[in-house]
Specification:
about 250 residues; alpha/beta; TIM Barrel; 9-stranded mixed beta sheet; two-stranded antiparallel sheet; 11 helices; 11 strands; globular
Length: about 250
């Protein structure tokens, strides 16, 4: 029920609602339709995944191939942008380029690009600088080497270090957090089941934000908000906004 958790105005406004691959509960993931819907739903950020084509165009796709989204096992890295653009990945949507995403979202929503494929950092930073989006973006990755390269080239960018789903050993989890602390990163992005009060306190004590992925159940959203996480990645933006008690005209 809406309203049985009371949040301060500051908490409602400061908490980050991050659309996972856009509004992916309402449109095909990582498509312009999903990103446009995230804007309509008043998400604070959209998260999206970066890959490269045969001709080095940066595109938006979580997987390295189209087997899951279009039944095509061929690697995106071995396909031209022209070939990729002919493929329907659901509801008539095509895989967007990073430039297309920028044109759709600039000035309307903030960005959390996730670096998956190698060889993207230089081009990504160039585009973010060109679009004047350095101060409003959070770059994330599971690969600390890629993140440190981002930090070295553009210290003004916020960095979010992703902790893998498969990681459950508490010692290893703490090593990830310590690595983020030692490198003075902006945030840690853990899989939500590993997060508890001790985890959040350790991160916050050392200046790290905690943005958890990917939460689509109201009860879990409530629990995490009460624990003190700073943001949630979700496929269901409307549900998270309702849980926070956010209302919009």
């Amino acid at each position: 029920m809406i309203g049985d958790i009371i949040f301060s105005k500051k908490k409602k406004n400061d908490f980050l609602v991050i659309g996972h691959r856009g509004a992916s509960s309402e449109a095909p993931e990582n498509t312009l339709k999903a990103f446009e819907r995230a804007i309509e739903l008043n998400a604070d950020y959209i998260e999206f995944d970066l890959q490269k084509t045969l001709n080095n165009e940066i595109i938006i796709s979580h997987d390295t191939n189209l087997l899951r989204t279009a039944g095509i096992p061929k690697s995106l890295r071995d396909m031209s942008i022209e070939e990729i653009k002919r493929i329907n990945i659901g509801e008539g949507e095509r895989i967007p380029t990073l430039h297309e995403l920028m044109a759709t979202t600039k000035g309307k929503i903030k960005l959390v690009p996730e670096i998956i494929a190698p060889g993207i950092v230089d081009d990504l930073i160039y585009i973010l600088r060109e679009e004047n989006l350095i101060n409003t973006s959070i770059v994330s990755s599971f690969d600390i080497a890629e993140l440190l390269k981002v930090k070295e080239i553009e210290p003004g960018l916020k960095i979010g270090y992703l902790i893998p789903k498969a990681l459950t050993n508490i010692r290893m989890i703490k090593r990830y957090v310590q690595r983020a602390i030692d490198n003075e990163l902006h945030a840690i992005h853990p899989y939500y089941p590993i997060v508890d009060k001790e985890f959040i306190d350790l991160a916050h004590k050392n200046g790290l934000k905690v943005n958890v992925f990917t939460v689509n159940e109201e009860d879990m959203m409530r629990k995490l908000i009460k624990l003190g996480v700073d943001g949630i990645f979700t496929d269901d933006i409307a549900l998270l906004n309702r849980t926070l008690g956010r209302t919009y005209q």
